[in-house]
Amino acid sequence: MGNFWLQEKHTDGYEVKWKIDGIIHSEKTKYQELAIVETREWGRALILDGALQTSEKDEFIYHEMIVHPAMCTHPKPEKVLIIGGGDGGTLREVVKHSRVNEIDMVEIDERVIENSKKYLPSLACAFDDQRVSLHVEDGVWFVKKFSGKYDVVIVDSSDPVGPAVQLFSRDFYQDVFAALKNDGLVVVQSESPFFYQETFKSVYKNISTVFPYTFTYLVPIPTYVSGPWSFTIGSKKHDPLKLTSDREHIPGLKYYNEGIHTSVFCLPSFIKEMLK
Amino acid sequence: MGNFWLQEKHTDGYEVKWKIDGIIHSEKTKYQELAIVETREWGRALILDGALQTSEKDEFIYHEMIVHPAMCTHPKPEKVLIIGGGDGGTLREVVKHSRVNEIDMVEIDERVIENSKKYLPSLACAFDDQRVSLHVEDGVWFVKKFSGKYDVVIVDSSDPVGPAVQLFSRDFYQDVFAALKNDGLVVVQSESPFFYQETFKSVYKNISTVFPYTFTYLVPIPTYVSGPWSFTIGSKKHDPLKLTSDREHIPGLKYYNEGIHTSVFCLPSFIKEMLK
């Protein structure tokens, strides 16, 4: 389709262009502009409000790394809540944990789920798992309904603009804290420490004022901005660097392994300074 | 200066644009097109043949991480050879090691050094160190002159196009092997495992056919392509994961620390597969 590019303006001084070989589908949902495109570099990708969310070829990095460090930190993750993640990639990784017996998944935009099922089946392949209850509503309100229910909460949000902005607030983390059991933990994607430094720092600060233990880890994700991407864990009790020996081993992963689990929490000195 | 951008075409499907607020200097040297520009995002940057080489604001990552993992792996790095690195950032990090008593630095393009001294003084600040001998010539030929001389060789090359192409060959690594002492080691920048996968794999393969021990490590560098950047160590004896207790501690670094030293060698599963 000629010289067609997705151009992402990350800052006033940094733009990235991905060659688009085809528009598979596009629509305006109740919440956002949605497109499924064929990229030259990464296969099919989901675009929301002009920002690349996930691609077939590199999505394993983001999805394995938002799920397994937290899930493997908890010795017995039985009840899990996923907020966001309508493409299904996070859910696909969570169902690999056999100790899980109940998964609530809350996505505000049903059209993200429907289009992912139709056009990104390698991601949206676990919605039929018997343990999953799907809730099409706002995660910010959903989480308020529960007290002491979950072992692990995973906040797989888009950037803090549009529908996701509340998911980065201290009030929301307090509601998540209340919804977790006494030894529960939450993991959130917390943006780039270089390009979205204020968000990165405020997530850490907000979580650490609510949870007794806060851990940041870094993972470079090729379809996001350059440099490392960050995730942040808020934990009531468990420490990702002190794993119990009986935790579940998940076979067949492409990114996560035991060495990665420990090493991603080792932060460069300037990031440690940033979080002081 | 209006709407002026450095546009880097990394692949047919991936381009990056950095806003340029000013051209400080530009010239055609004997070897390449050289420019010093003021970027919106990263301060002053050195551009060679249209590719961003190093910037004031993120250069500490690349330079600390090409130098200290190798230098701290060797228990007594006294004689060091730097090939390339005309901007001076690698040299600045090497001179922080007090056990070093002789540094040969070989840069093919004198104009890179001269312009870095003039326009990037925070990088090119160690050329006057008493231990440094500067050689303006081709590193490929320089290294052939020596046998068993060096403890550590650092290959700080640009991409394998133009003057740097020989620095990625097996023949060159054999000459480096010969120039090293019996317990010497070499470190090279080995490109992106995503966007330049063939180079990444061939460097690993070439080094591992010459050296008994080969170690790859990953570091995300914001001014380079997205995802991780790679470095590869070829070692005759020393193992970066078995550090001697008396190694020198280098204070005041912004990226490198003991946790980083160990963790960067933990590779994601798909990278381990790629290197099999």
Briefly, what is this?
Helices cover 26% and strands 32% of the residues of chain A. In chain A, helix 2 links the parallel strand 6 (79-84) and strand 7.
Q: What is the approximate shape of chain A?
A: globular
> What's the CATH architecture name of the largest domain in chain A?
3-Layer(aba) Sandwich
Number of helices of chain A: 8
The CATH topology annotation of the largest domain in chain A reads as: Rossmann fold
Low-confidence segments of chain A, given as residue ranges, are: none
Question: How many structural domains can be distinguished in the coordinates of chain A?
Answer: 2
Oligomer status? homodimer
Structure description:
2 copies of one chain form a homodimer. With 276 residues, chain A is an alpha/beta fold. Chain A has helices at 59-73, 89-94, 110-119, 139-142, 170-179, 197-210, 258-263, 269-274; strands spanning 5-11, 14-28, 33-39, 43-48, 51-55, 79-84, 102-106, 132-135, 150-156, 180-189, 213-220, 228-235. The first copy, chain A, folds into 2 domains: 5-55, Spermidine Synthase, Chain: A, domain 2, CATH 2.30.140; 59-274, Rossmann fold (3-Layer(aba) Sandwich), CATH 3.40.50.150. Chain A is globular and about 55 Å long. At the A-B interface, strand 2 and helix 7 of A face strand 2 and helix 7 of B.
